[in-house]
Amino acid sequence: MDSSPTASELPPGLEYLIQIDHILIQQDLEFVEAILGFETANKYKIKNKLGQKVYYAVEESSFCTRICCGESRCFSMRILDNLGHEVIILKRPLRCSSCLCPCCLQKIEVQIPPGVPIGYVIQTWHPCAPKFTVQNEKKQAVLKIIGPCITCSCVGNVDFEIKSLDEKIVIGRISKHWSGFLKEILTDVDSFGIQFPMDLDVKMKAVMLGACFLIDFMFFETGGGHRPKL
């Protein structure tokens, strides 16, 4: 882990990440989706641990892509600050969603405007446990993310541990929060928490946001009711 640079050395909008070690992400409830069942573009509020909104995320994808590809769809996610300025861009290509087909696994690219990559999250093949490698802008492996074999959110939180490259040290976690029985069964509205060291490189903190959204779409974006994914 590298020490974070000073605010003046950071890309605009990321300086707030220097002073936090916990992020909450809450998906907005879309009434059209809840009532009619049509998948709409996701929107999320990103808050600090005091519940104050610091960013807002908006999915950009076509109606046909959402209907035909569902949770496996490709998308861009624009993350905006409270003034409406774009600070982070996430790019997810269309990839295979099955661990039985390891040749084309999931990935997400994290960019800062105007499209400069600062990191990547790449799925690592494993027969049962969700595994990801976190890379920096030079595509060098920095961290690992490892989830449980069963990702069904039935009665409690589901934790994906952020680990060192040798997988021996846990430095944080991405947690899918239990939202209550009715919301879990009837909607795909999700809430997450991300914990990481205060001194983690700020760009890697931004990449953890990308990892959280990739995990959401892969394992919990099921259109009402969650189930384990192969």
TrEMBL record:
Keyword match Lipoprotein: yes
Cofactor: Ca(2+)
InterPro entries found in the cross-reference section: Scramblase
Keyword set includes Calcium: yes
Keywords: Calcium, Lipoprotein, Palmitate
Family affiliation: Belongs to the phospholipid scramblase family.
Function text: May mediate accelerated ATP-independent bidirectional transbilayer migration of phospholipids upon binding calcium ions that results in a loss of phospholipid asymmetry in the plasma membrane.
Record protein name field: Phospholipid scramblase
Organism (species): Mesocricetus auratus (Golden hamster)
Phylogenetic placement of the source organism: Eukaryota, Metazoa, Chordata, Craniata, Vertebrata
Name of encoding gene: LOC101829548
